[in-house]
Amino acid sequence: MLKATVVIRLKKGVVDPEGKNVKKALHLLHFKEVEEVKSAKLFEIFLNETDKEKALKILEEMCRKLLANPVINEYTIEIEDVE
Fold it and tell me: pTM higher than 0.90 for the full model?
């Protein structure tokens, strides 16, 4: 079995209203050191697969078809073995 960690982020230049709101809230809580906040989604996906190359192809297809919007998102995929 493989565990994939997929992180979906907004592409550079895309407005991140959630990140801006969190930054504003942190400043209101007196965390003035915060310069920037960027939001992201993290998915842990467990696959009944042992071939990492095949798993990567499957995960990339998942990202293209559902998890990420290719117009505004970029993503990273990390794959590891689990027992």
Answer: no
pLDDT band of residue 83 (cuts 50, 70, 90) is confident
Please report, for the chain, the start and end positions of each structural domain, with discontinuous segments joined by +.
2-81
- The whole-angstrom separation of Cα 64 and Cα 16 is 21
Region 6-31: what's the mean pLDDT? 97
**58: phi then psi, degrees, rounded to nearest 5:** -65, -45
Mean pLDDT of 57-73: 97
Name which of 62, 73, 68 is nearest 12 in CA terms. 73
- Cα(50)–Cα(65) distance, integer angstroms: 22
Question: Per CATH, is 2-81 categorized as 3.30.1280.10?
Answer: yes
Return all residues near 10 (Cβ < 8 A) that are at least 6 apart. Answer: 16, 38, 39, 40, 72, 73, 74
